[in-house]
Amino acid sequence: MKTIRAICNQRMLVIMALGFAGGVPFSITRDFLKAWMTEANVDLGTIGLFSGLTLPFTIKFLWAPGLDRYVPYGLGRRRGWLIISQICLAVAILFLGQIDPRQSLLWIAIMALTVSFFSATQDIAIDAHRREFLTNEELGFGSALYMNMYRVGQLSSLAVGIFVAQHFGYAYAHVAMAMMLVVGAIATLLSKEPQMTEQAPATLVSAAVEPLREFFRRKGAWLILAFFLFYKIGDNMAGAMTVPFILKLGFDKTDYLYIVKGVGMFALFGGMLLGGALMVRLGLFWSLISFGVLQMVSTAGFAWLALVGKSFPVLTSVVVFELMSTGLGTAAYATFMAMQTDRRFTATQYALFTSLMALPGTLAAMATGFMAEAFGWPGFYLTCALVAIPGLLLIPKICSPETEKA
Q1: What is the chain's alpha carbon radius of gyration, rounded to the nearest angstrom?
Q2: What sign results for the dihedral spanned by CA atoms 381, 384, 388, 390?
Q3: What is the mean pLDDT of the chain?
Q4: Where do the DSSP E strands lie in 58-191?
Q5: What is the rounded CA–CA span in Å between residue 136 and residue 149?
Q6: Residue 353 has pLDDT above 90, yes or no
Q7: pTM of the model
Q8: How far is residue 406's CA from residue 404's CA, in Å, rounded to a whole number?
Q9: 64/193 Cα distance (integer angstroms)
Q10: Residue 326 in contact with residue 302, Cβ under 8 Å?
């Protein structure tokens, strides 16, 4: 009954809808825009520069304090910012679709950056709303649902955009993608504003400074920070070399798409949902431990594949196990991260934590090619597995079955 109550309620439907709305604009600037520009014969160098449009997602913690400090009139602090970001997003997407990339790349860049900015702002608001809207018991499964629906939103907006562009043109494609945000707006209006039991920051400066001060005053703050940096670093390092590894084993690009992006994605989704459900039963402490060990073992599985060589059954088994373990670990990791936020500064702290989460994986991934050349594929993947150990050893120091419910 405890598990059923935590995963089967109206709040989960709201979280699913918000996850879908969060994923819709992300693929517009990351994927759809590049397809549009390619068809418009924009040179590859310029298209590559537009990859920088994802920068707002990396630095979103810079304006997150404003979402903690100011309360939009009428709807409340969380729902108000959600509606504002959703309306601004829809308008920006519509304007973006009216520009011809063959005539004005500058305005394309300006409007695409605007879309990216309000998309990142919507993410800040959704993360804060999700943390405050769900109970601790619901947070694990709710986070897993959100992440899955975020990916569904990405794939759906890309598919709808390409289909409409093919038959009716790019202006109508942007209209169709903007209309998909209605799902999130309806969910926002139907959800309840989380109750504020603590005093919100009195000034913008305090909204920016106090979240850091509050966090670093905690006992074990530096250990928690180290955990954020190291829990998934081995998994991220291994993932950075998946494509060249599989191709160099003798598989072709179609094999990669079918097994990793096809079968593997179902394993990832299933892992996140299973992880969210299991956390209700296991508790966060044992989930972090067990899922972290599975992540480490699954990474070492690629060393086995490297020794076996080209084998479709082994590749499928390793990829499914690895992505399911990644889904399990991601669900527990995201839940722990959300539970470390102070409700006065949820938006700022969560945005900061997610930026810190991405940093070590990005930096470490830059060295993975050199590591693979130096150690060979089996040695590389075993090294990535061992890199996960520090993160696992930190868990008993920052979390315990007795304190996780506090």
Answers
A1: 21
A2: positive
A3: 84
A4: none
A5: 20
A6: no
A7: 0.76
A8: 6
A9: 18
A10: no
